[in-house]
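Retry 2 of 3 after timeout on previous attempt. Resubmitting structure tokens to design endpoint.
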């Protein structure tokens, strides 16, 4: 019902929607230092207020929850469906070729720029779905609310703030993953660990290492400084490590030290196998250098024994496992700082429904302790699951099938979404199966026709659930 009207509306508003997405994607909304009235910094504040201004200009009733979250309501009836999207983005990173991160451009049917796929493009698609229903005067008996957050990438404290004062809607979907319907999300363990030792003056030595940008990003580039190493040794270790791992190395050699850059391929930590971890590659490299024996050098070897390069399933840590409903455990070693007196590191593990604190957390704690490392976590984030046979999920799947011609089915993800803690929340779109949007990587993009299809699907879902 209403399919013809929806498709005509979307076609007529295509360029306007693209322009609105670009408006938001020109704003660098990475998490920044707190300013008064700006809990996540100026960028997130600007993006939120720009989006709310946009929604209000299309006739929606808006509300701003202390610049943590903004909402747009389709009508003043009883809330029945929430659409939960976010306007913050991960750091831009390096390696962009199609455009600069915050200079969105349309090329060959793709819209490039940070946030085009994650999650500003889908957020605007949801807004346009609501706009289509509103401007086509399609009667509804219940309300739809678009919820726009600003801290999804860094812990979702924004949404905690929102739900401290608002109740969950009976149904919620987030367009922040992929189609068809993600009704199962893995649990997670962001394992924070440290070690300390006495400083050593023995040469040659590692002066410092600092790797990673965020816990949920596989490092694509890392750096270290060493002292007392001959150039030929640096080059030989680089050749051996590149052959072994695929990681490429660059050097800047000074009189008393050398700066080493390891270059791999970044990825989202929920799919670490899609990247080539420059952090673990750098550790492999350091293990091949003729560093003087000391506690620091021994700890580098210990780290490699626990999280060797290419082990994205936690085998060496003793936590590899999986189940049919949620797949295999994944692990990404994502953050590490080493000084002359200690180290501080974090890994990101996405854990299937069969996981628990006994078979993951405590196993990691025990195996790290055996290597001189202290794990500081005392809990894990549990997995999330919504019944795939519910009326809600079946309605989403039907709309997806009707507008794509593809079979709708429930899938799982290792990436935790906004709905992870919501009783009846699922992820629904916005990327289509088989499309790699390069989320969290360089040259992130959204396929324009896919975004337009999202608008149609979301509009149909609104009608089917709220009429």
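Retry 2 succeeded. Sequence:
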């Amino acid at each position: 019902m209403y399919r013809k009207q929806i498709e005509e509306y979307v076609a007529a508003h295509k360029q306007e929607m693209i322009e609105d997405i670009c408006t938001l994607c020109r704003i660098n909304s990475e998490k920044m230092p707190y300013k008064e009235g700006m809990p996540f910094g100026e960028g997130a504040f600007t993006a939120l207020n720009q989006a709310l201004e946009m929604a209000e200009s299309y006739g929606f009733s808006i509300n701003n929850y202390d610049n943590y979250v903004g909402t747009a309501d389709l009508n003043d009836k009883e809330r029945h469906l929430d659409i939960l999207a976010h306007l913050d983005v991960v750091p831009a990173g390096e390696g962009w070729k199609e455009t600069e991160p915050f200079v969105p451009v349309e090329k060959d049917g793709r819209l490039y720029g940070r946030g085009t796929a994650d999650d500003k493009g889908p957020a605007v698609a949801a807004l346009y779905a609501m706009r289509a229903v509103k401007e086509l005067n399609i009667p509804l008996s219940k309300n739809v609310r678009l919820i726009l957050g600003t801290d999804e990438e860094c812990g979702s404290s924004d949404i905690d703030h929102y739900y401290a004062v608002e109740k969950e809607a009976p149904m919620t979907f987030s367009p922040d993953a992929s189609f068809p319907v993600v009704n199962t999300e893995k649990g997670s363990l962001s394992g924070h660990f440290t070690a300390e030792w006495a400083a050593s003056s023995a040469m040659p030595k590692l002066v410092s290492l600092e790797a990673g940008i965020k816990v949920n990003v596989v490092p694509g580039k890392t750096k270290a400084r060493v002292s007392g190493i001959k150039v030929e040794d640096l080059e030989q270790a680089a050749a051996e490590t590149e052959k072994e791992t695929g990681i490429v190395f660059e050097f800047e050699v000074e009189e008393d030290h050398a700066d080493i850059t390891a270059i791999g391929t970044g990825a989202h930590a929920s799919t670490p196998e899609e990247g080539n971890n420059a952090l673990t590659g750098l550790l492999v490299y350091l293990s091949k250098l003729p560093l003087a024996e000391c506690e620091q050098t021994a700890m580098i070897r210990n780290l490699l024994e626990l999280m060797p390069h290419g082990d994205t399933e936690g085998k060496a840590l003793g936590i590899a496992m999986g189940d049919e409903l949620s797949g295999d455990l994944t692990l990404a070693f994502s953050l590490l700082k080493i000084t002359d007196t200690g180290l501080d590191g974090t890994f990101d593990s996405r854990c299937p429904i069969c996981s628990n604190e006994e078979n993951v957390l405590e196993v990691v704690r025990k195996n790290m302790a055996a290597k001189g490392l202290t794990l500081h976590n005392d809990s894990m984030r549990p997995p999330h699951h919504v019944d795939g046979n519910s009326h809600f999920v079946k309605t989403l799947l039907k709309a997806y099938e009707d507008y794509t011609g593809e079979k709708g089915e429930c899938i799982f993800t290792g990436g935790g979404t906004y709905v992870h803690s919501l009783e009846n929340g699922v992820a629904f779109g916005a990327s289509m199966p088989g499309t790699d949007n390069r989320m969290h990587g360089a040259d992130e993009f959204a396929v324009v026709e896919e975004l337009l299809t999202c608008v149609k699907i979301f509009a149909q879902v609104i009608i089917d659930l709220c009429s």
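Attempt log closed. The chain has two domains: 3-185+383-466, 188-375.
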